[in-house]
Amino acid sequence: MKKTFTFLLFYGLILSVKAQTIVNRNPEIDKMVRSVNPDSLKSYISKMVAFGTRSTISDTKHKTKGIGAARNWVVSKFNQFASQSDGRLSAFLDTVTIKPDGKRVDKQIILGNAVAVLKGTDVNDKRVFIVSGHLDSRVTDVMNGVSDAPGANDDGSGVAGVIESARIMSQYKFPATIIFVAVSGEEQSLLGSGFMAVKAKKEGWNVEAMLNNDMIGSNNASETQIIDNTKLRVFSEGLPAYELDKNAKNIRQYGLENDGKSRQLARYVKETGERYVDQLDIKLIYRNDRFLRGGDHTPFVENGFTAVRITEMNENFEHQHQDLRTEKGIKYGDLMEFMDFEYLRKNTAVNIAVLANLAKAPSMPTEVKVDVKNLSNSTYLYWKAPLSGTVKGYYVLMRETSSPVWQKKFFSIATEMRLPYSKDNYLFSVQSLGKEDNESLPVVPVAGR
After folding, report:
1. I need a labelling partner for 362 at 20 to 30 A (CA). Which of 92, 124, 188, 339 fits?
2. Dihedral, CA atoms, 60, 67, 188, 75, nearest 10 degrees?
3. DSSP alpha helices (H): ranges in 136-176?
4. Structure confidence at residue 1 as a pLDDT band (50, 70, 90)
5. Which domains does the chain have, with CATH numbers?
């Protein structure tokens, strides 16, 4: 009797284990994620700190000091990685002349963004994915372009993540194009990202997603003294900054205040990032950015692109925008000693996982609609194939209107699906699934008949 009970208990445990959720990771993406090296990240930041200041209004011609030397170094790193890309990666300094504005620019400057483009392998795939960090740093006075401003975390961490992403991803092939950029002028009112966003809109880039990384390397908070490297924030806008007046009626009528494109990207970052990076809880913050603050994703959403801000959970204001000094036993300044490079490794890995999954996936399904012709307690969705990529099938995602994340996922090889759930009670979206199980961004249906 005892043996029988033991067997049943063991068998029950096996069934319980089998009933748990299985996490499927694409082997190639998993390899990329595991390749992120905290020592490499530390070496990049050490080099950036050695430039003294990287203020946008600092010296642009000195060989070893100032923003000019720093941005040239980033381009040189990108070019170093280009040698392993079989000609797919190219790097350059994208410049624009900025005139004095009487506010945060006191003289005419040549602003420069350090850019690397990893060209997609599918000539029919016009999608572009952008990952950014800002290279410039500052002290207490934003107009001080001379004093040392290490900028180790703000935003050496974001730039280091971009550089490491380029190092790893340039060794692989993706159907879509990925752009790695260290922008300048963030502290001078988002000048570099603004220049890039306007250029992207003017030239008609098909930017499907933009990940802005700003301060992703510190695990501790001032004032509250919280220390935690297991949480990461993703900020995303709710109502669209671009053409809200044209979209407001439908948003209000169908209850889509929480389902803009940037909010969908944020959910994608959470699901994909947590799939590939262990011991990390990605928090969705339903704001475009923090109170009284701005980030380089903002010019992109203002120009109609899908963009989010990725940033650490616990900010330490003793090490942001501070002159280097010690007061009352507190050491101020954005120095490397206050960083957590294991945390930075995880946050960089999130970027790589998201970018790789998106760039490997087919493009989004087109003309996604929900049938509203008749009153019904079921939901009929239909759509058309994506413009690029090989499709294995589609996922229809579903959640309660009050849920922050998608709760159920239904697979279909057809371009339609009827579900026994009322469209009045749930929200739905559809995403393309590639042959290697990489998912596109979800598309929320519009009303169809």
Report:
1. 92
2. 110
3. 156-169
4. very low
5. 27-360 (3.40.630.10), 366-448 (2.60.40.10)
